[in-house]
Specification:
alpha/beta, 2 domains, Rossmann fold, 10 helices, three-stranded antiparallel β-sheet, seven-stranded parallel β-sheet, about 350 residues
Length: about 350
């Protein structure tokens, strides 16, 4: 990527809270309320097994990221030669349940917020052609703000016009769908489907209207058969690998998915190396996000004047960024709902200097 940026925005789950999407701390409880009786009982049972906590109220919600870590199927690897630990094992069933429920939950919340203007609209309106965004969120609230504003974005930089904003999503998105086969693919890009990065060798498609229906247009039968049934995103957890919702036919397809994610991170790196300013909104830099910690540490160590600005209500977060990155940190706003991208002076209460 040759285009340099003057400001890079990094978006985390806290930015979606004004739109009634929960953080990972309360997500387990929120998901449980959307399930039928049988599935809710299964989730409650596995929460008790993993944490010793009875899921009876919001205050009992356990961190969703940690839940998925404890549902990791690799824990059954050494049981492969026994009748135990197969697809019917309780934790495997619970893992499938919570991921399917997660995808439905996010889609439903995004649809409910599709016409609601909020802080994302203010952010999109402020963007010039030297700004870029990295969002770690699976939701499509930001994409819908772009659509409301009549502005274009691209998940990877291409030869598009200069006014197209780069929007990287290193953890995938609820409107991304993987192709699991590579035979006789024909995609009609006049419908609601677009080829990720303009390159079919990534074997990823996305919905241009992120909450619209899966409109194939005149796409071929083989493409329809090859599409994974659920969106592709990176579940929270230590591995941080793309989950495509099925088994790719062969190594060519699997490698395509990996190359798509590597292209995102290469572009992230290029943006970081050119950006003198980073504005972080609602991203707590979780310990499991090893790649992003390393990327930000690299940015902080580059020569030249660098400024990191936070938009977050947590007063201790500035100290965490300073400790991990050894850089100057300014809290410019405590609430994304009142954040003005044109005003980036420290609040004075939580500013942390090197």
């Amino acid at each position: 990527m040759s285009k340099s940026v003057s400001r890079l925005y990094i978006i985390g789950a806290g930015a979606s809270v004004p739109y009634r999407l929960p953080t990972l701390k309360t997500l387990t409880w929120e998901l449980a309320q959307t399930l039928g009786k049988t599935d809710r009982e299964l989730l409650a049972r596995i929460v008790y097994e993993c944490f010793g906590v009875t899921l009876r109220a919001r205050k009992h919600s356990i961190d969703f990221e940690e839940l998925l870590n404890r549902l990791d199927a690799s824990a059954f690897e050494y049981l492969a030669d026994t009748p135990l630990g197969g697809s019917n094992a309780l934790r495997r069933r619970a893992g499938r349940l919570v991921l399917a429920a997660l995808r439905r939950f996010i889609r439903d919340r995004c649809r409910a917020a599709s016409t609601r203007k909020g802080p994302y609209d203010r952010l999109v309106a402020s963007l010039d052609n030297r700004a870029a965004i990295v969002s770690f969120n699976w939701d499509v609230l930001l994409e819908m703000a772009f659509r409301r504003a009549g502005r274009q974005f691209a998940y990877l930089p291409t030869s598009s016009p200069a006014d197209v904003t780069v929007l990287l999503k290193p953890h995938g998105s609820i409107n991304w769908f993987a192709l699991l086969d590579r035979e006789l693919l024909a995609i009609d890009r006049g419908g609601n489907l677009e080829v990720f990065g303009g390159n079919l060798s990534y074997y990823l498609l996305y919905l241009k209207n992120p909450i619209g229906r899966l409109d194939w247009g005149s796409s071929g039968h083989f493409a329809r058969m090859a599409l994974a049934p659920v969106p592709a995103f990176v579940p929270p957890g230590a591995s941080r690998l793309l989950s495509v919702g099925g088994a790719p036919r062969d190594a060519f397809v699997e490698n395509g998915h990996a190359q798509a994610m590597k292209a995102i991170w290469r572009t992230f790196n290029a943006l970081v190396e050119s950006a003198p300013e980073i504005v972080v909104i609602g991203y707590s830099i979780p310990g499991t996000d090893a790649a992003s910690v390393e990327m930000l540490r690299h940015w902080a160590g580059l020569r030249g004047r660098r400024r990191l600005m936070l938009v977050d209500p947590n007063p201790s977060l500035a100290g965490r960024y300073r400790a991990l990155l050894n850089t100057t940190v300014d809290v410019v706003c405590n609430d994304f709902r009142t954040f003005d991208p044109q005003v980036t002076h420290p609040t004075g209460r939580h500013s942390v200097a090197r």
